[in-house]
């Protein structure tokens, strides 16, 4: 990390540990400059970063202060407890049922898998598409079959290089979104009936992919802050004939957890030693709330066992359906499978993104997007603390746009989802995120709809519904908000 990032990280840890509390004044720029022997610009950069993360706020002529609610929540979720056996997967019917009910535009989209489309530069992308199509050589419709447009693959290779990774364009296969990349990766390293190690809870799209290919899932203990537990993974590999791992090491969906750099390096080494491929789902990696994008596990791949899958759908161009996979030693197999399954990815979308990326606007867009998501997370956490029942536990990710909530005993999240739908509110119940539907009192909430005036009212309504369930099952409930004078 840079010096200002280290300073910001130190202050953030003190805030989250409670040694710096709401409305505490931070040292002035002059004080820190003198105490630590650093430049004023370093201090300012640290404070700007903390402000973007929603932890501090500047007050006119007074300096910087800890934001109210920045230290919340005090109760961290415990690590998940995996089922110690391989399981067949059957979740698609529930996924389709839940998600089909939350597509209307007038629905408050807390259950959506996408951030607000208003956060993305569609006008600039459209202008790039127009320029690219005017120059398009008709022969590109043939030349740019799988593995995809050469110039776009070059731009993606340069993006890897910007974080210190050497991923040649020849290793890349352009796909129709990240889900095709992940499915192709799974097809390239498994056969029906094989066992695949997954996180728990895990992205329901991973469960659907395993179900479609007739694969069995075995779960690995996953911590809501630090991600996959490597000791648990070692035990799983010793006890089961694992043929591949499908993990999301950075800003995992649904919990938002991120493995440390050291843990990612150890993960890659452990799997390479055992010749087990790692399918790395990294669609949220660019959405760090700070200035530093955590490197993917692929950064430590020396032997080609990591199949790194990502897309532009969450960070730049939703709806354009452009993803890719950096396949390592499996690149040729991936290219053949892509050619046999869908032949090619839509050329106009590839050309539009290639045009946009070469004009170097992506990083400027990402800075604004990261700042927006960080501030929105802080607001959503405040509303949850204010309106949800006492005992609710919630994650605080350092990137992405999801919160994972554990509600008190007595609340059923699927019933809560159904009640919320009648109020025009969509949520993603925890039942979706495991093969055995065990997360019955958990919710995933999407806070990526910046500036939606309905957000606070929707969170309050969800809190009221949860309290109503508690009252009906236990005879106890929280008082309504107007009576909670002791709570922020």
UniProtKB/TrEMBL annotation:
The keyword Thylakoid appears for this protein: no
Keyword entries, A-Z: Aminotransferase, DNA-binding, Pyridoxal phosphate, Transcription, Transcription regulation, Transferase
GO molecular function: DNA binding; DNA-binding transcription factor activity; pyridoxal phosphate binding; transaminase activity
SMART domains: HTH_GNTR
Similarity annotation: In the C-terminal section; belongs to the class-I pyridoxal-phosphate-dependent aminotransferase family.
Organism field: Variovorax boronicumulans
CDD domains: AAT_like, WHTH_GntR
Name of the molecule in the record: DNA-binding transcriptional MocR family regulator
Domain HTH gntR-type span(s) in chain numbering: 1-69
Pfam family of the protein (one): GntR
């Amino acid at each position: 990390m840079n010096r200002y990032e280290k300073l910001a990280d130190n202050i953030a840890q003190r805030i989250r540990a409670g040694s710096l509390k709401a409305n505490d004044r931070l040292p002035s720029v002059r004080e820190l400059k003198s105490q630590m022997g650093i430049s004023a610009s370093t201090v300012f950069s640290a404070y700007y970063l903390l402000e973007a993360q929603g932890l501090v706020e500047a007050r006119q002529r007074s300096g910087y202060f800890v934001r109210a609610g920045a230290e919340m929540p005090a109760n961290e979720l415990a690590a998940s407890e995996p089922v110690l056996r391989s399981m067949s997967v059957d979740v698609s019917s529930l996924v389709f049922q839940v998600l089909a009910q939350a597509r209307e535009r007038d629905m408050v989209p807390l259950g959506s898998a996408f951030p607000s489309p208003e956060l993305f530069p569609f006008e600039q992308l459209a202008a790039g598409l127009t320029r690219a199509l005017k120059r398009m050589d008709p022969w590109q419709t043939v030349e740019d079959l799988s593995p995809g447009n050469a110039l776009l693959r070059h731009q993606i290779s340069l993006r890897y290089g910007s974080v210190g990774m050497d991923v040649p364009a020849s290793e890349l296969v352009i796909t129709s979104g990240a889900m095709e990349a992940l499915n192709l990766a799974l097809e390239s390293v498994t056969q029906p009936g094989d066992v695949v190690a997954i996180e728990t809870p895990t992205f329901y799209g991973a469960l659907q992919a395993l179900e479609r290919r007739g694969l069995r899932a075995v779960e690995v203990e996953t911590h809501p802050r630090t991600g996959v537990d490597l000791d648990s993974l070692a035990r799983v590999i010793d006890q089961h004939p694992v043929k591949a791992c499908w993990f999301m090491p950075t800003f995992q969906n649904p919990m938002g957890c991120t493995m440390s750099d050291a843990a990612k390096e150890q993960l890659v080494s452990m799997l390479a030693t055992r010749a087990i491929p790692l399918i790395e789902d990294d669609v949220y990696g660019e959405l760090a709330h700070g200035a530093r994008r955590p490197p993917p596990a692929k950064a430590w791949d020396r032997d080609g066992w990591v199949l790194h899958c990502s897309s532009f759908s969450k960070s730049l161009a939703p709806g354009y359906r452009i993803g890719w996979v950096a396949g390592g030693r499996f690149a040729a197999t991936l290219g053949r499978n892509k050619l046999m399954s869908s032949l090619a990815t839509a050329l106009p979308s590839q050309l539009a993104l290639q045009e946009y990326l070469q004009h170097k606007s992506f990083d400027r867009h990402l800075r604004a997007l990261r700042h927006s998501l960080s501030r929105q997370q802080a607001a959503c956490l405040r509303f949850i603390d204010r309106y949800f029942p006492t005992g609710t536990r919630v994650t605080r990710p350092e990137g992405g746009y999801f919160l994972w909530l554990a509600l008190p005993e007595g609340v059923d999240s699927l019933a809560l989802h159904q009640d919320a739908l009648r109020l025009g509110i969509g949520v993603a119940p925890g039942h979706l995120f495991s093969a055995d539907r065990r997360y019955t009192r958990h919710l995933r909430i999407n806070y990526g709809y910046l500036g939606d005036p309905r957000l606070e009212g929707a969170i309050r309504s969800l809190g009221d519904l949860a309290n109503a369930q508690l009252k009906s099952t236990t005879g106890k409930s929280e008082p309504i908000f107007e009576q909670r004078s002791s709570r922020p």
